[in-house]
């Protein structure tokens, strides 16, 4: 599938659980256009092992994302009822109780498919029956979407590999620095460090100092 970088993020309309217990129908991505940046992240399944560590890690940094005007959204192929049940399960028992940002149900797997993160592929067998080749769950995809609804960054991990939430924050800060100052962010840049002008002179001056 062609990369979504620089392209409009696929919209969706689904059911989500917000604030850990509220069912919201017709939850869309487009509701945030013109208002907020979005970090949309996919995880394979509820009631698994690496996934709760990621969801809690995002919750722990929720205030930092909110300060940057970022809406966090989690998504998996589970139903909204599965999300709700997992949200009621305490952290010390492998649950995600305490997570408050929206968790979207992609029970049809259409959202995962549109973002190119569905691990399995559906195809008919010799008898015309549709079967999934591979795991019918989402890879650990993460998409940074700007306020105009354009995908500016994405990373997709295989199922065993948990993500770095601080890196997601860093990428938001880098995008916002570029938008505010017009400077590009070199390798290993972090907020407060020097960026550079996207010119030959700018690159030469930066490399000379570093």
List keywords for this structure.
Glutaredoxin, 2 domains, two-stranded antiparallel ribbon, Thioredoxin peroxidase, Peroxiredoxin_C, Peroxiredoxin_AhpC-typ, oxidoreductase, Thioredoxin-like_sf
Describe the structure.
- 30% of the residues are buried.
- The chain is built from 6 helices and 9 strands, in the order E-E-E-H-H-E-H-E-H-E-E-E-E-H-H.
- A hairpin with a 5-residue loop joins strand 6 (121-124) and strand 7 (130-133).
- It is an alpha+beta fold.
- It has helices spanning 50-60, 62-67, 80-88, 110-114, 165-181, 200-209; strands at 13-18, 22-28, 37-42, 70-76, 103-105, 121-124, 130-133, 140-145, 151-157.
- It has a 7-stranded mixed beta sheet.
- It is globular, with a radius of gyration of 19 Å.
């Amino acid at each position: 599938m062609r990369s979504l970088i620089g392209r409009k993020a696929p919209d969706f309309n689904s059911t989500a659980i917000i604030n850990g217990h509220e069912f919201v129908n017709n939850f869309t991505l487009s509701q945030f256009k013109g208002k907020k940046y979005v970090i949309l992240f996919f995880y394979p399944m509820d009631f698994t092992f690496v996934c709760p560590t990621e969801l809690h890690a995002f919750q722990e940094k929720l205030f930092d994302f909110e300060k940057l005007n970022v809406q966090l959204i989690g998504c998996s192929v589970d139903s909204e009822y599965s999300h709700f049940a997992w949200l009621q399960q305490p952290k010390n028992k492998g649950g995600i109780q305490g997570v408050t940002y929206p968790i979207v149900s992609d029970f049809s797997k259409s959202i995962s498919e549109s973002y190119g993160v569905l691990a399995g592929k559906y195809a008919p067998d010799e008898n015309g029956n549709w079967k999934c080749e591979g795991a019918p769950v989402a890879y650990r995809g993460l998409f940074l979407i700007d306020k105009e609804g354009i995908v500016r960054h994405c990373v997709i991990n295989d199922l065993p590999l948990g993500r770095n939430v601080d890196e997601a924050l860093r990428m938001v800060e880098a995008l916002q620095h570029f938008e505010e100052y017009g400077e590009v962010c070199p390798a290993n840049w972090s907020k407060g460090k020097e960026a550079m002008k996207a010119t030959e002179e700018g690159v030469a001056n930066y490399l000379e100092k570093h």
